[in-house]
Amino acid sequence: MKKTVLIFILSFFLCSCREIETFPIPWSEAKAITVQGDDVYVAGNSGDGIKGGACCWKNGIRIDLTTSADPGYHDVSAIAIQGGDIYTAGNYRENNRYGYYIACYWKNGVRTDLTTSKETKYADVKAIAIIGSDIYAAGFCSENGNGIACYWKNGARTNLTESAELKDSRVAAIIIQDSDIYMAGWYSDDSRKIILCCWKNGVRTDFPDLTPTDGGIFAIAMQDIDVYTAGCYKDDSGNYIPCYWKNGIKTTLSVTNEKAYTTPYGITIHGEDVYTAGRYYDDSGDSKTIACYWKNNIRIDLPFN
User: Could you tell me the residue ranges of all domains in the chain?
Assistant: First the structure.
């Protein structure tokens, strides 16, 4: 049976996992990961405390997607590989920190915008898939204060929900098989409860029982009938510990210490191996956040340069 993997990043908390909101010094973070053969590709961001740049790493070698001449502040949350081409996707902010958020993708570092500031104030791409010459990107756009789940095919947007239908919704994974489009994500109901779901050709199926109750989820991957989620949980001392769950069974990821604010943002499955990607805070002297990924439970740091 052909194995199907859905990978997505979820921008919500079931608990208040601690975040580092300002970066007065150099920093980096990993947001998405994929494995092709023996090659490990990680997409993420780095910055100097004022300006953030999109980047990716192939087997630990960094490739910058933006330059000092690029406008705004950039965030990459998705990656896909086709042949020798690297596709990454996310958004950027016009006028640095206080502008509009423009959904976009990069092909080998060349950016294509999917929205404009006149169209929506906030838009983001959380997943990308390439089928032949067609480029599919999935995420959300803001309308009337709510996030609207949507996807783009070659730049043309299709909404999956309406602003009056759900309080908030996101698409965060996409895969195309034959002529069918499968997407996974989440929405919040009238009580603001988060519910995981999947769309097949626009028809939604809910998965209310797949959300762990002891932590915050940032990413999900599906392989056959197995569901993998990645995020963090709160230990008895009040620290947030990185982990992933397979069908609800938790595996803790290695950390430098319990107060390292370690957060996994992406997950993928390759054969029998589980790869997660994220960041941790290094307070050993030159305090900074460091992008990293784990293969199973072994952490690999990614270089700034």
Answer: 5-301
